């Protein structure tokens, strides 16, 4: 599912993310969650999707700013990709349409793994003195 081409695709897409797209992820958070709950290959990322959406919400609200903007942009790009029905492989194609979405999410998770771990720790333990 995941490959280096997917990772490069996410990096390139992240470079084009704007604050408007951050807003779009927050506004469509429930739709994003539903995509993960209801679509075959994406189901394995349900817990990760909740964390990714929460990260963007906390970033937008100014509650969490420890993540690099590149991390935020990669997450936003990947989540918008999931709700876009006309991406590389259209979602209307049964199963196959969700495979490319899962590939993009897997690549995103690989790219942001370190920041996501820090965010999860922050959510559990609260802010650290040096932040």
Q: How is this structure best described in words?
A:
By secondary structure, the protein is mainly α. The chain is built from seven helices and no strands. The protein has helices at residues 4-14, 19-27, 29-38, 46-61, 69-83, 96-111, 113-125. Helix 2 crosses helix 5 (69-83). The mean pLDDT is 85.
Q: How would you sum up the major sheet?
A: none
Structural class: mainly alpha
Span of the ends, CA to CA: 35 Å
Number of strands: 0
The helix-strand sequence is HHHHHHH
Structurally, how many domains make up the residues? 1
Provide the β-strand percentage band.
under 5%
The total of helices stands at 7
User: Which of globular, elongated, flat, extended, rod-shaped describes the shape?
Assistant: globular
- Rg (CA only): 14 Å
Low-confidence stretches: none
**Mean pLDDT across every amino acid position:** 85
Helix content: 55-70%
Sum up the structure in keywords.
131 residues; mainly alpha; globular
